Amino acid sequence: MIPSLAKNDCSALWERYKFHNDPKAKEKLILEYAGLVKFVAGRMAISLPPSVQQDDLISYGIFGLIDAIEKYDMDRNIKFETYAIARIRGAIWDGLRSMDWVPYSVRHKAKELEQTYARLEHQLGRAATDEEICQALNLTRQQFAQLLMETSYSSFLSLDDLWSIDKEGGNSVRLIDTIQDQNVPDPVAMVMFEEQKRILTDAINKLPEREKLVIALYYYEGLTLKEIGKVLGVSESRVSQLHTKAIMRLRGRLSRIKKRVLE
Fold first, then answer.
1. How far is CA 210 from CA 206, 227, 232, in A?
2. What percent of the chain has pLDDT over 90?
């Protein structure tokens, strides 16, 4: 679960920073909420290979925390921790992508698996089973399990990076980028955001029940893969497989929708 931080009253610090631009108040806010960065980095580290150091994740996350403090709107009815965690995740994700820490071979396998899910589920009109995926890829169940383990490193936090609105991919919209309020709301952006939420909700609702539960517990309840395993009565590696399959299904379905939009 998201840690309860800054239990003391921080309103005075927020007022000093937001209304008087007090740099010392900003520094104190960063220290006050620094535990959020460690929390997010710790959760993300579980899904990453050992070669990725948690200290690196924390370093990236600090930039996200600073960005969140600078852009947080006190007038909105949004808890700062909720807003900041999305920004911290995004900053860590951007840092990892800049490292290009996933080998090309793994990215290629992940793309092939995603396309296979999309093609089969379009043909079948339902969620493809593991047996059907294995047959399509000419893999044994053991090889399929190994593939899921390898591609899990390329699929974490995919829900933070779902949609591109032009063919070149240069104009991308992430859910975390829609949290910030604007002085004058853009009706087009609001409609597009609501449509994205509807599409994503529909895609999640079509997942097999156990995969849907993993998504809910991981992204909405804030549980780790190990904690989800205890809830479901399965191993952490099995939860990782379920998470990877769910992400691949979602990405496959959303990629089909994106192609129709851009045609």
1. 11, 15, 9
2. 23
Residues 114 and 244 grouped into a single domain: yes
Same domain, residue pair 109 and 85: no
**Strands, E assignment, 120-245:** 163-164, 172-173
Cα(249)–Cα(117) distance, integer angstroms: 6
Provide the token pair at 133: 């995926």
Given a contact cutoff of 8 angstroms between Cβ atoms, the answer to whether 109 and 151 are in contact is yes
pTM of the model: 0.52
Dihedrals phi, psi of 203, to nearest 5 degrees: -65, -40
Q: For all residues of the chain together, what is the average pLDDT?
A: 78
Which domain-ending residue is among 64, 99, 134?
Answer: 99
Structural domain harbouring 54: 11-99
Phi-psi region of 161 (alpha: psi -120 to 50; beta: other; left: phi over 0): beta
CB-CB neighbours of 138 under 10 Å: 7
Q: Is the pLDDT of residue 159 over 60?
A: no
Q: Indicate if 92 and 164 belong to the same structural domain.
A: no
Detail the DSSP E strand segments found in the chain: 163-164, 172-173
Alpha-carbon distances of 178 from 2, 134, 182, 194, 255, rounded to whole Å? 21, 38, 10, 10, 20
CB-side exposure of 7: number of CA atoms within 13 Å? 2
CA distances from 117 to 37, 102, 137 (A): 34, 21, 10
Write down the pLDDT at residue 165: 42
